[in-house]
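Action item from last week, closing it out:
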Amino acid sequence: MVVMRMRTLPVLALALACLLARGPVRAQEAAPGAGSLESARETLARWVETQKIISREKKDWQQAKELLVSRIEVLKKETSTLEEKLQQARAELGTSQKARSEQLAERDRIKGLTAGLALHAGELEVKVRGLVASLPESLRERVMPLYQRIPPDPLTAKVSPAERYQNILGILNELNRLNSEITVVSEIRPLSDGRPSEVKSVYVGLGQAYFVSAGGEAGIGRPAEGGWNWTPANLLARDVNQVLEILQNKSSPRFVALPVDIR
């Protein structure tokens, strides 16, 4: 193959133009340069083909380069996005771990408070038991539904502290109501002959009480250790009957003097 530099192309083109301008020549004149002309034409054709290939390769390479550059930009953006998500995930993980630590600390704090409340509830239940035990039997029945909810053993109670406090407050509210009212009840009480008899009792709050029987016997009751202490007071029978008539709307309200022991 004959290699021609690009700067020789104008000279070759000029030579070809001169040959074509001369017109027909005799066979004996054309014969000596026929081989050189054919060789030049073949070389020119190959060079043109080579330039086409080079041009096509350049075009293909330019397109491939643009595609690669575009792909690189896309990958850079994806990498940047993934890096941001990774940083965000790390931050969220740190926040989650911090929140979990705070939740665990709060849980332990609540457990401690719950244990303290349960212990205090047990102490209050013991005191409430003592208060209920000191009530007259006829009034004790009013708090028994709540009293029966108190767990037998505070240390093994399965009831929540909230429910235990609710029971305690319910009993205390009922006791406070009884202590602020005058209550009339029918009771069975032993009289002077030793036989149990029905009497009418008037409780002034939970600090003083009076009773009178149908036979005219009367007495005074006061709270004591483990129950109430009742003492005969037959001279009060008439006054206690007057109080009962007033409370039952059988008589007009009036002042009735009864002895009170304030301690």
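Closing note: Strands lie at 182-190, 196-204, 208-213, 218-224, 227-232.
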